[in-house]
Design a protein that fits this description.
By secondary structure, the chain is an alpha/beta fold. Strand 9 and strand 10 (329-333) form a beta hairpin. Helices cover 38% and strands 12% of the residues. The chain is globular, with a radius of gyration of 21 Å.
Length: 392
């Protein structure tokens, strides 16, 4: 196995802390879906030890038997303080928040508040596959508004999708992914303001999935959708899940803009029973005390983006990759390799490395794979070596 240079004296980057043998002891989806000879860089789990404040919060809760039902507004207040400190946004009103089981189930609940069966939901493809799965499962109709060649929102295409969505004069929603998954695009304030203006013009309700909000490059700035002019009728879902690797500790928050408070107030009370109380404690601790750990991860991800670009240029120059400002995901255009619509299947069979298949992300996904960058430089280097070996 090839190894990238590693400074063993640097233990500040959580991405460099765990060996492959240690990671294979995990029993979560990432490490149990494929056989042991497959290197898994697919589902959005991070190869890191947990932030110490999170471990402490969970351990103390278990020690005192604090494992009942969730209560209080501590999570929302922690997010409000985090947003103020990190994004310069003082717009989270705790009275316009609600805890939900996780972001996607929160998306379902928000869409249920502002649309009805058969109504259209606009998405920017290629996009996170559960957008299609959850929307269609709840009997809504997906309307695609493909991203531009630059992997950013194409406002003209989005406007046409909005026009089509409201053509029957029914209700319509726009499920915004911000930062965007799988491309990692971080939407600018200008782009989001333009989105808000279009949504207002066509009467489309915006529901923003902002689960990756804390995970941006050190020199990038995340802009909350509800912070831009015209977004007062918007709804947002946020969580510490992705940034602190807490997918197994279920908890998220729904946020409403000032003009959407009445919508959020109609959220069924039983939804608040879905989150884990221990999850709420973990997420709150992450937001309150996990900033230094998060910044160390962000720095490591910056290094990995540069490393991946260098490795691909050297070993697989026909793979197109644009290092992104957000998420810990890399969207690789493998169309020039001639591997068909699903190159992930080829890399898995021939190279024993697992990526997320591009076709699962909708229109624009064929010929692509999504790679999870939240791993060590050694494993990232090995993944590219296996990709190259699959072409031999």
């Amino acid at each position: 196995m090839d190894h990238a240079p590693r400074d063993d004296s640097d233990d500040t980057d959580p991405l460099r802390r765990l060996t492959l043998d240690e990671l294979r002891l995990r029993t979560s989806m990432k490490w149990r879906t494929y056989p042991d000879d497959v290197l898994p860089l697919w589902v959005a789990e991070m190869d890191v030890p947990l932030a110490p404040p999170v471990v402490r919060a969970v351990t103390e809760a278990l020690a005192r038997g604090d494992t009942g039902y969730p209560a209080g507004t501590g999570y929302a207040r922690a997010l409000a303080d985090f947003a103020r400190a990190r994004w310069g946004w003082d717009g989270i009103d705790v009275s316009r928040t609600a805890i939900v089981p996780d972001v996607m189930l929160g998306v379902v609940e928000m869409l249920s508040l502002v649309t009805g069966p058969g109504d259209p939901v606009v998405v920017n493809c290629p996009v996170y596959p559960p957008f299609y799965q959850f929307v269609t499962h709840m009997d809504r109709r997906v309307v695609e508004a493909p991203l531009g060649e630059d992997l950013r929102i194409d406002l003209a295409v989005l406007e046409e999708a909005f026009r089509h969505a409201v053509a029957d004069r029914g209700r319509a929603a726009y499920l915004l992914c911000s930062p965007h998954n799988p491309t990692g695009t971080v939407h600018s304030a200008e782009e989001l303001s333009a989105v808000a203006a279009l949504a207002d013009r066509y009467g489309v309700r915006v529901v923003a999935d902002e689960i990756h909000a804390p995970v941006v490059a050190l020199d990038a700035a995340f802009v909350p959708y509800l912070s831009v002019p015209g977004a007062e009728r918007g709804l947002s879902l946020m969580s510490a899940s992705k940034a602190w690797n807490l997918a197994g500790l279920k908890a998220a928050l729904a946020l409403a803009g000032p003009a959407a408070a009445d919508d959020l107030a109609r959220l069924p009370e039983e939804v608040s029973h879905g989150p884990s109380h221990v999850g709420v404690l973990a997420h709150t601790a992450a937001l309150r005390e996990g900033g230094d750990w998060l910044d160390a991860v962000r720095g490591g991800l910056d290094d990995n983006r540069r490393l991946l670009a260098s490795l691909l240029a050297e070993r697989l120059p026909r793979v197109r990759y644009r290092p992104a400002e957000g998420t810990y995901l890399a969207w690789l255009d493998c169309r020039q390799l001639g591997l068909g619509d699903d190159p992930a299947a080829v890399f898995l069979e021939r190279g024993r490395v697992a990526f997320s298949p591009g076709p699962h992300f909708g229109t624009g996904g064929a010929g692509h794979v999504r790679l999870n960058l939240a791993t060590s430089p050694e494993l990232l280097t090995e993944a590219v070596r296996r990709m190259a070996s699959a072409l031999d």
